[in-house]
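agent> step 3/5: call structure_predict on target 'MTH1187 family thiamine-binding protein' (Streptomyces cinereospinus).
agent> reason: downstream docking stage needs a structural representation; sequence fetched in step 2, passing through unchanged.
tool.input:
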Amino acid sequence: MIVAFSVTPLGVGEDVGEYVADAVRVVRASGLPHRTDAMFTSIEGEWDEVMDVVRRAVAAVEQRAPRVSLVLKADIRPGVTDGLTSKVETVERHLAQ
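tool.output (status=ok):
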């Protein structure tokens, strides 16, 4: 399973990078395969472990923000591993043709 999610603190002003960093620290400490870009963090693993990381990432932001927005998209595909890498490699292969 791959989950792409975005945690946004609300009510803390316009500059939210330090709050988002709290969430990304949780993801990085999880040991699960992950990738962070300007809009989302994607994480790969089993349902329970991925959702636990998302929950803890939200909780980390909740500690300092009065309100938190969570956007989540999941690709639930049993038996697939290394999807974070293989999906991108497939697209790159097609682009190279």
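agent> step 4/5: record observation. Strands lie at 2-10, 34-36, 41-44, 67-75.
agent> proceeding.
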